[in-house]
Every structure is written in C-alpha cells, then in structure tokens.
Fold this protein.
Amino acid sequence: MLSSPVWRGLPALYFCLGLVAGGVVIAAALLLLGSLLRAPLPPPVRIGIVLVAALVVALRELGVLRFPLPENKRLVPESVFRLGRFAGPFQFGLEMGTGVRTYLPSGLAYLTAVVLLLFATPLTAVAAGVGFGLGRSLMTTSALHFDDSGGWNLEWGHRSTAVTRVLLVGYLAALAVLVSSLLPA
C-alpha cells in the first residue's frame, strides 16, 4: 500500500509526522503510567526489572527464546483514508506510531516501554517517542524505493538478521550506559 504513487510527496510526509506524533503519544502515556509505578519501587528494584527484561528480550531477538510478543493482530483500518489525502495518512501514521494498532516485529519496543515506565523523564519520553516514530518512518518509507514486486520484502529477508543484531547490540550498549549512570557512585 505504501508503494502506491499516492504515497509520494506530502502524503508520505504527513504519514511520517503521524508516526512521530504517535510515538510521542504512547511515550507520554507510558511516562504517566510510570509515575504511578516508580513511586513504590526503589531504584535497585527498577534496575533489576530492566535488566531481566533486557536479558529476556535479547535472548528472544537472538532466537534462543521463542515466544510471541503481545500485539494487536488487527492492522490500522483503511477506512482512515476517508479523511482525505493528508489527514488520512496522518491518522494512519498516528495509529501505527503508537504501536498499539499494528504489529511490532521486535522486542526492543517492549524493552523501551519498560525503561520508560520505570525511569523516564518528560524529556527522555519525548525523545524516545520521536525515535520510535522516526524508526517506524524509516522502515515503512524505505519500501517506497522499491517497486510493487516484493523487492523490499526480499531485501529485508536477506538483511533482517544482521539488522536485528546490530540494533540489539547498539540498544544494549545504550542501556548499559543508562544503567551505569543510575548506579550509586
């Protein structure tokens, strides 16, 4: 659907803006919910929860553990396009950007949710939301550079393992820096 000529130009931009806005909305919701969770949990307990979640996600991403991620099996309905050429793609992106109306192929998004719940500040929540939306934008709009013959899916099939491992290592390195900054000196 994204490879359609309708998705070139401004509609694609509005879609990407919706993805980023959706990421910020879900990050803000996690920040709000987390404010209730953080209060009774001391920092060492929260660090422990994040480390256990990181281990489980890393083992899943590497294929050592196999279990389905909780996700909504329904995609964003195409009826959002009744809103027009610009509002429709924005709403579609907004719903997809929250991650609650579509598939999430990686456990890293769930690990991010745990970190946001237990440690986020308003600034880090917005940064994580923007990052999630930009990441989704990159993945979905990269398909625009391929034709409708399934070339993008073929390329992703060849490269997904390497991309997953690079992202996992980068994510865990950043998480290690975060956790080390939270430990008492």
Summary: Residues 108 and 171 are 8 Å apart (CA to CA). Helices lie at 10-38, 43-61, 87-98, 108-119, 122-142, 151-182.
